[in-house]
Specification:
single chain, 72 residues
Length: 72
């Protein structure tokens, strides 16, 4: 076979590989966005849990003080 028969095939394969690369890059970007959203949600949940723990500790301390002193 002559070289001129391979050139269209090589162009087609190059185009196919480029399109596949673009599509895969787009999929990776979407997954990274999902990971970022998950990390943001996890951070918000951890902040809320810390606030809840702090509030619970305050309530426990107030209840103990009331039991010990009788002073509201």
């Amino acid at each position: 076979m002559k070289l001129r028969h391979f050139i269209p095939l090589l162009l087609f394969l190059s185009t196919l590989l480029a399109a596949t690369n673009i599509w895969l890059s787009w999929q990776v970007e979407l997954q990274l966005q999902d990971v970022e959203e998950t990390e943001e949600n996890e951070f918000a949940v951890l902040q809320l849990a810390e606030q809840l723990r702090h509030t619970s500790d305050d309530l426990t301390r107030f209840a103990r003080e009331y039991v010990l002193t009788g002073n509201p």
